[in-house]
Amino acid sequence: MDFFDLIKERRSVRSFKKQEVEEGKIKRILEAANSAPSAGNAQSYEIYVVKSKEKKEALSTAALCQPSVKEAPVVLVFCANMKRGMSKYGARGTEMYCVQDATIACAYAQLAAADLGLGSVWVGAFYEMQVGEAIGADQKFERPIIMLPIGYPTEKPKATPRRKLDDLVHKEK
User: Fold this and answer.
1) Each residue of 94-112: pLDDT tens digit?
2) Which partner for 68 in 14, 126, 144, 168 could form a disulfide, CB atoms 3.0-4.6 Å apart?
């Protein structure tokens, strides 16, 4: 699909078929995430691939019982790796760059999933400590930032209203 069409057509999908996502597609999504730019190429993030029913239920509970998290065939959990961020940029790397790195990697994964005919939804409302415990993250240095449930959609949501560019963009005077 043309990139601009992909961006225009991608939607947040919260309902999935009970159909596994092929390993080849998961690998391509992870490769796309790995291609994302990062501050100083530190790649200060980790990606956890969650497929087990028990762990997805734990993640759903941590995410205020959002059903899409437990119903999706696979959930990618993107964590900021504060240690990697700190090694190159100190406090700014720990507080911000590693979060940005995880975020942009997730955005690349989300677009890759859409290009492969899969649906996904960005999940940011959750209790970080519970998510970290569920995935076995190193809670001292890894901070869960985003969960991305992925699967074959059972719905095609309509486009949501967007701000007009005149409202969003500020040009120099």
Assistant:
1) 899 999 999 999 999 999 9
2) 14
